[in-house]
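FORM 7B: Structural annotation worksheet

SECTION A. Query
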Amino acid sequence: MNKQKKKGNHMRTKVKRTRLILGLLSLMALSILAITPANAGVIASDDFSSVGSGTGWAAGSSWSGGSLGPSGFTVFGATSFRPFASSVTDSNNPLYIGFDFTRNFDSWAGVSLFNGSSEELFMGRPFQQSRYGGEVSDPSQGLIYLGNVSVDTSAHRMVTQIDFGGGAGPGEDRIRFWVDNSTEAAPDATVDVDGSWLPSLFTQLRIGSNGSLTVDNLTVSTSFGDSYAGVPEPATMSLLALGGVAALRRRRKA
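SECTION B. Predicted structure
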């Protein structure tokens, strides 16, 4: 009798624990679906899984002038624009832009922040440069900054930070740049620019090259960690959680 009683108590405890885990996983999945890019620190992102994929972009918008593939979005001697759902302002400070980058047969290739029709910050391979970096637009000429990684045809993870008002001088902004470098405190390049050179808002992003450029796992955020690692789409994360629920249910039935 005692053995049967103990066994019954053990089974009831196990059932309660399983129900609790199932409930928590279901709640987590619903919570992930409710997360918006703003409260997650992510302003806009795209894993280029399909036409119009991603979050934080203008309704009904998509990248055009290129092609989707298993490695991301590719342009061939072309440019492609996509507007943000709302203007990205200097209240998002610091601002990080991260993406996977693979280029070939070009003299320039990169991702650019635009304010209306004006290109403000270019990230990737500046024109005819032998190392990766970026270029800031200014009234007279562009200011180029370069990291330590030489231009090649391999895939690289690039992150750029805009620290509005973070420069050494009064009114200066600071730009930091990383290539395949997950150490936030040790950027590959740092440059301070006059605060008037960068606008207080950006309206759209451009992917472009005069050769071949593939971009993937694009993230605009207020976190270095999010922009370096890239952020799974909320639907993807929720599916993982729901998958855990299903697995537990199958195990319980078995």
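SECTION C. Observations
The helical segments are 2-34, 224-229, 234-253. The chain has two domains: 2-34+239-253, 42-230.

SECTION D. Sign-off
Analyst initials: ____
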